[in-house]
Structure formats: C-alpha cells, structure tokens
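User: We ran a pulldown and think these components assemble together. Before we commit to crystallization trials, I'd like a predicted model of the whole complex to look at. Sequences follow.
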Amino acid sequence: MSEKKVITFKGTKEQEARLLKAIESHKGQPGSLMPILQQAQEIYGYLPIEVQRIIAQKTGISMAEIYGVVTFYTQFSLYPKGEYKISVCMGTACYVKGANAILDRLKERLGIEVGECSSDGKYSLDATRCIGACGLAPVLTVNDDVYGRLVADDVDGILAKY
Amino acid sequence: MQTVNIKINGKELSVPASYTVLEAARLANIDIPTLCYLKGVNQIGACRMCVVEIKGARSLQAACVYPVSEGMEVSTNSALVRESRKTTLQLILSNHDKKCLTCVRNRNCELQTLSDELGIGDIPFEGEVSDARCEIDNMSPSIVRDNNKCVLCRRCISVCKNVQTVSVIDAKERGFKTNIGCAFDKSLGEVACVNCGQCIAVCPVGALYEKDTTEKVWQAIEDTAKHVVVQTAPAVRVALGEEFGMPIGSRVTGKMVAALRRMGFDRVFDTDTAADLTIMEEGTEVIERITQGGKLPVITSCSPGWVKFCEHNYPEFLDNLSTAKSPHEMFGALIKSYYADKADIDPKNIVVVSVMPCTAKKFEAERPELSNGGNQDVDMVITTRELARMIKQAGVDFVNLPDEAFDNPFGGASGAGVIFGATGGVMEAALRTVAEVLSGKSLDDYEYKVVRGTDDIKRAEVDVAGRTIKAAVAHGLGNARKLLDAVKAGKESYDFIEIMACPGGCVTGGGQPIVDAKKQMDINVKAERAKAIYAEDKSLPIRKSHENPVIKKLYDEFLEKPGSHKAHRLLHTHYTERELY
Ligand code: SF4
Ligand code: SF4
Ligand code: SF4
Ligand code: FES
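Assistant: Here's a predicted model for the assembly, 743 residues in total across the polymer chains.
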C-alpha cells in the first residue's frame, strides 16, 4: 500500500489547546464534524494525521469517516503549504500551450503530487485556474514571482533559485 | 399489524404499512434487481439498480428505500424502468475489472447475476473512465481488498461501522476517484480492523476476500517429510455443503471428513474435542472466580475478532477475558506435545491446519504468544470457502461421498463442543459443566434454551447448586459494545459473558459460504445453520464436555487436572492492549 507522504508535524501546544476548545464547543451536536474540521484547518493550515487523530479521539467519530470527509471536500488539505508555494496555471491558454508538461516535470523533480508538499516542507505544488496572464502562457508562480513562456526544461533553472 | 392496499404491475396486494416497495414486491414474488441493498445491513438507495415507476411520482424511485402507501400503483418492469436499470449497470460495468474467469467470486457474484438477468449484451461507455488499476491491499493476514472490483455499494462500510462498530473503512475522495478503504490509505493490516471478515460476507462482488492459504496447504500435503494434521471447527460442517449446491442448514460432517482424507491429510481431527477442553479450562476458571472472589464477569475468549476488538477498544476488560486459548489453538498445542509424543513425531515436522468459519483465526494463528518451544500452535488456517475450493481442485465428488468418522485419539466430541458454533453455545456448554461440577450431581435438565436464538443480547439468571449465575450473551461487536458499555457504567452486572464477534456466532462467520442478498431476503441464514448445529448436538451420545472420555483420558494421562501448571503452559494465553489509532 502506498501511504500518503509523511511530513514532520510541527503543531504547537497552543494550537492543540485551540483545537480542543473548538472540539469542546461542538461536542455532542449532530453535524459537528464539518465546523470542527473547518476550525482545525484554520488553526493548523492543513489536516494531517496528528490533527485527525485528536479529533477522532475526542469526538468518537472514526478516523476513516473523518478522512473520508477531509478528502471529499476540496476546502480541506492534507498537506501544509511549502515555504515556496508553486502554482502552475491550468487555464485554457496555458493548458493548450503545454502546462501539463511543466506540471509533470515539477512532480518528477519534487517527487510530489498536486496538492502535496515536499517532505522537507520547502515546496508545495498546486494546479490553479487561470491567473489572467494568458499573454505569457504557459505560466507558473512561486509565491509572488511569475514565470512565463515556459518549456519543461526551464523548470530546473527556476527551482535552482529557491 | 397495519396494512395498506397497493397495486404492483396491476396486481392488487395488501401489505404491512412498514414495508418498502421492494419488500412488498418480494411478497408478491415479483423480482426487483438490487445491488447495494442488503437486508438488515444496508438500505441507502445508492446504486439505483432497483428503480421502479410509481404513479404520480416525478421520477423513477429506488424500491429498496421507498415506503409503500395506501393506493400506491407501482410498475416494476416498464420499458422506462428496464432501460434505466440497464444504463445504470452498463455504467458500473464500464469501470469494472470484469475478469470473471479468474475471480474468487466467479459464479457466486451479484454483479454477474445482474448482468445475466438484465441481458447486458454490450457496454457502450467503455473507455470513458481512466483504466488505472487500484493497488490491491493484501498486507492483512486475513483480509484482501481489491478495489478494481468494487462497485461502491457501501455494504462493507455499513457492516463495519453500524453492525460491528469497528469503523475502519469508509468512502474517500469524490467523483471518479471515490474509493473505499482506511484513513490515510493505510492497509487493513495496519489499523484496528479485527479481521472478522463480515465485510467479505456482505460484499456482492470479488472486491473483498480472505488471504488465500490453499497453496501453502497443498505444498505441506505434498511434502513427504511433513505429518499434516487437519482439524475442523463446529460451524464448518453445517455450511460446507452449500458450496456444493446443498441447501442451507445441511449437515455434512461425515462427507467433510471423507473429503479431507481424500485430499491427503495424514490425520483428520475434530476441533469440537478441543472445545470440550476449552470448557473444562474456562469452566474451571469461571467456578474459581465465582467461588473465590476473582475478577467478574469472566468473558469468553474463543472469538479472535472479539479479542482484538477488546484489545483496541476495551483494554479495561482485558483482565476479565478468560485466559483459555481458543479451541483450535489448544488443539494445536496438544497435537504438537501430547500427540507428537504418542505418535513419536518431532513437533517440528507436524503441520497443523485449521479449517475455520473465520478469517480472524488467520490473524490469531500468527500471534507470537500462541506458540510453544518455537513452534506456532497452528501453522495454517483456511476458511470454509477455501476448503470448498480445495475439494473442487482435488476433483472430489463431495455430494456423493460416504460418511466417515474423525481419527483417534481425538475422535470423540460431546454435543457441548458442537454448539460452540452458534451464538449462546459456549455459554450453554459451559453451564452444562459448571452446573454439574458445582452441584456435584449429574443433571437431566441441561439444555439452556434461554441463551439460544438470535436476539441481539441474551440475558439469563441461571440457578446452579443454590447459587444464581448471571449470564449474558452478545453476538456482533455492536451488541458487545452495548453490553460492555452497560457493564462499564454499572447499569448491568454479570458473572459470565459470552461474546462472539460475528452476528449469529461462528455459523455466520466471515469465512463461511456467502449467501447472496436475494436469498437473504427470504432465509434467516443464522437460524438455519444454528438449527443444524443443535440437531448435531442432539444426535450425539455424550452432550457434556466433562463426560467426554477423550477429555478424561487427556487429563489422566497428560494434563493432570483443569487449571494445572501444565494446562496453563499449553492451553492458556494473555492479551495486549493495542492502540485504536
Ligand atoms: S466481481 Fe463478479 S463481475 Fe467482477 S470479475 Fe468478479 S465475478 Fe466477474
Ligand atoms: S474485517 Fe471486520 S473489522 Fe475489518 S474491515 Fe472488515 S468488517 Fe471491518
Ligand atoms: S468492497 Fe464490496 S461491499 Fe464494499 S463497497 Fe465495494 S463492492 Fe460494496
Ligand atoms: S438503490 Fe436499491 S438496491 Fe441499490
């Protein structure tokens, strides 16, 4: 079985206290899982196994059910955002001009899938909707830096800068 | 009972008001195809295989969840209905593995049957979905999941979550990526799955099956250096016949023994004999704890699904569990000591194969503590289904076999050993012995019918030698949870509790022949197979464990007395708390 990648959990005591409070405030109410997960995502920025385990233990809702809900809704994420957040535009213009090849190269170089974060926490990878830079297609951004008119071979040079 | 008048396909009918359209149609012998529906387990209206036309309703409705009402007019086979069902099935099949010839469920598959009954012909949607194959999860010693065959009916989720309250599987992701499995895509072998196999028993297709051990067993039989001993649990003999077309509830003990011999096992022993031994050891424990103020209630420990559930979910009750090993493990330990000595065979060259109605026994056999001098008590476990496959492979004409008897020195078992196979059986068997030991008399009244039957939880107060023994029996882990929570909260108190992981007990264990959803609408499988078990009990000359001469001899020659030092070393075990997540 290919397990999901493990990224060292860096949650603080203070975050855990906030999570426990959030769980407590919804305790026993029907349909409480969604608001608890939303608050947990706010507190930690993502919902790793450590956080889901606390929620399961405190609510009595099974991990399988919690994980099911987390992976069903796109608003929840299993991975943190990296120090460098790489987004590849998958809008029509970029797509037509080969954004897929760029995305594939990034996946290969970083060893992660879309939505994931490298295990050192440095890079995370997303595919986004049109960012409005169609003239530069295909485009990717690293945090606030924009790179355009790319071919797959440009990927290494860009990664080297970070 | 309140009834309503409805019309199905023009036929007038009076049916109970609580019925669904599906149940009403069944009453009228009108067949509506289903896939996600399973009586008593899953009724969620998800697959839309069972759609019908209801006069006045805007769209087609799912018969399995649609309640009847006065004056309702239903059409179950209009062109619209047929077309819709066919499209639904074609969509399912377009994303299905379809390798029937090599599938474990070939010829016993609800999807295959549907495809046949609906006359599918071709599958026009082919190629629209990704053909990426899912990884097969085969890390668990008991359960294999192959999501390439999964039709997302969710019966396994319902049984695991609602019936067993183990809840280790659920639906993940969405849309085309929807799949069933454990949190964080872990294997069933890495989570708190108790290996009960109830998910296998409810799966309509070949997406869930037991980890196959048949090849290893064949290899052992082929190996001339090995002395291969087989033992069979009580519940196997009342279900095996079904795999060869015999009716549910057929008793095939003699044929089963004959088949095992023809397959080449060196000795064919009866686990029931060891069940008698379990009663002696466990019964002694019960008597000691009751009379000497030990930890009560004593809780039975012969169901490995239950034991693992307890280790994960109720560690506070681990000291209540009887320390007695389960019967086939006791037997394994004896075969590799007492029998090995008698037969003058090095225990290292003995292979003990258990035929069990149970997938959790596969996990149990691998427990390191269930061993002696570096030898596992039991080497291999196969389910009733696997045995049936092996009998077929061996070309044995099962139905026409003569009846044969088990081998000595462990040939004889009492009726008490037989009833282990049904819920309430261990309790009754123990009471038969405990009552006589405590009273010092042979009692004529030894059928404890209060603990029989398929009620969720059975509670009884039994008077034994001027003492009242408070007993409770739960089958299915959801019921066990209810009972234990009541005990924990101090609301109920007992001296002795029997728990079986599987609803119905071993007769409907996770390794037993699979009965499809349609048959289950008409037949109470638990009750039919239990009937056969109690008939077998009645047919035996000895009905109480302590009267079994084989057992008496064992203690005289080898084990000294129940609870002796030797008995403890060979026949008892201990438990370990396990994490839930
Ligand atoms: S699950 Fe059923 S339909 Fe699918 S391959 Fe197996 S036998 Fe065939
Ligand atoms: S074997 Fe039992 S506990 Fe494990 S997934 Fe299946 S139903 Fe759940
Ligand atoms: S594994 Fe079987 S029971 Fe579970 S959802 Fe898939 S087809 Fe249904
Ligand atoms: S919706 Fe009725 S059987 Fe699935």
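Chain A is about 45% helix and 10% strand. That may be worth checking against your pulldown data before setting up trials.

User: Thanks, that helps.
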